[in-house]
Write a structure and sequence with these properties.
Layout (H helix, E strand, L loop, with lengths): L4 E7 L2 E6 L4 H7 L16 H18 L3 H16 L11 H18 L14 H10 L11 E4 L18 E5 L1 H18 L4 E2 L2 H6 L13
Antiparallel strand pairs: 1-2, 3-4, 4-5
Helix pairs in contact: 2-4, 4-5
The protein binds zinc ion (2 copies).
């Protein structure tokens, strides 16, 4: 069993750990006496990043039917070849590479509509890029269901929606239910999930059909 944990303290050569998940049943049944501890050094891939990568690959594996190990190798190869980068190892790559690989995996899931056990909001390691991918793929930033575009910067009264240039305005992708909730309690909802609106660029406006306003799904 592999778990991640928070270091509570190190005192008199003793390390006190608080596991992120409940391990009491496992400990009771298997009575393990020893553990292996891998310490994050803030530069190489973290335990959390590795856990996220394996969780997403597991979801992709359940969806595609490929063996996780075989799939991981294929996805690493695809990630490297697309970005023209050197081969890396998940055991000792740097944090930036791990972060970019997680973003690549999230993008893969959105692109192919891979159903995931948890919302990818819980797996992302780069919230800004994640919020961008949600808009690009019209997926709710909270639950990943099909989404509408919510403008965080209100388009003022009297401004013609058809003529408003959306580039530079802040927006976020939200499903119908979360969109309605955002109109009731935006601040609290965003704080709860640690999400925010990001600036729309030309690419997003184009795929979201925003400049023309034709398919703008924002309700007034
Ligand atoms: Zn809205
Ligand atoms: Zn939602």
């Amino acid at each position: 069993m592999v778990v991640t944990a928070k270091i509570e303290k190190l005192e008199d050569g003793k390390l006190v750990l608080k596991p992120d998940t409940d391990i009491s049943r496992f400990v009771e049944q298997k009575r393990p006496r020893r553990v292996e501890v891998r310490l994050d050094d803030g530069r190489t891939i973290s335990v959390d990043q590795r856990r996220k990568i394996f969780a997403i690959i597991r979801d992709i594996s359940l969806w595609s039917g490929h063996e996780p190990e075989e799939l991981r190798q294929y996805l690493e190869w695809d990630f490297c070849s697309r970005a023209m980068r050197e081969w890396f190892s998940l055991s000792d790559c740097d944090m930036t590479t791990a972060r970019e690989f997680i973003t690549y995996l999230i993008s893969f899931c959105f692109h192919w509509g891979v159903p995931t056990k948890d919302s990818l909001l819980t797996q992302t390691d780069d919230i800004g890029k994640y919020l961008y991918l949600c808009l690009e793929n019209r997926r709710c930033a909270i639950c990943n269901r099909p989404a509408e575009v919510h403008h965080v910067d209100r388009i003022g009264m009297g401004m013609d929606r058809e003529k408003v240039v959306h580039v530079g305005l802040n927006a976020i992708a939200l499903c119908r239910a979360h969109h309605e909730e955002a109109h009731r309690r935006e601040k609290a909802l965003f704080a709860e999930y640690h999400i925010y609106g990001i600036k729309l660029d030309k690419h997003l406006c184009k795929i979201l059909n925003l400049r023309s306003g034709e398919q703008s799904s924002e309700k007034r």
